UniProtKB/TrEMBL annotation:
Pfam families named in the record: DUF4383
Keyword entries, A-Z: Membrane, Transmembrane, Transmembrane helix
Gene source species: Fictibacillus aquaticus
Protein name: DUF4383 domain-containing protein
Entry superkingdom: Bacteria
Segments crossing the lipid bilayer: 34-50, 62-85, 91-109
Length: 119
């Protein structure tokens, strides 16, 4: 499941990064060039890490923690290093963070304990 989650999330991030450069959005989500680069980098790293379940679980943990910090940062500032944080961005960052943390820590831990019990 972690591989599928990370691969799907990565494809979405790659698409957002590309779409953000082609059709700059300044409505609900304010996507700046820096924001688009972050999306592209996240998508590329995610695709690389989706090659195995263990790497996907690790990516989900790290990615979830980073996006949780980004969500918290967005509560206190509206701009950081060229990235704009609007309310919709913050909500989306928290949703991505919690989904990634679930896959990384809860689902990843349950799969790990199932392997230990069955051996």
């Amino acid at each position: 499941m972690a591989k599928t989650f990370v691969k799907t999330l990565s494809i979405i991030f790659l698409a957002l990064g590309i779409i953000g450069f082609v059709f700059p959005m300044e409505s609900i989500f304010h996507l700046t060039p820096v924001h688009n680069i972050v999306h592209l980098a996240s998508g590329i790293v995610g695709l690389i890490m989706s090659s195995s379940e263990a790497k996907a679980v690790l990516f989900s943990k790290v990615f979830g923690l980073v996006y949780l910090l980004v969500g918290i940062l967005g509560l206190f500032t509206h701009e950081f290093m060229g990235i704009m944080f609007l309310v919709a961005d913050n909500i989306l960052h928290f949703i991505i963070a919690f989904a990634s943390l679930y896959v990384g820590f809860i689902y990843g831990a349950s799969k790990s304990s199932n392997r230990t019990v069955s051996q």
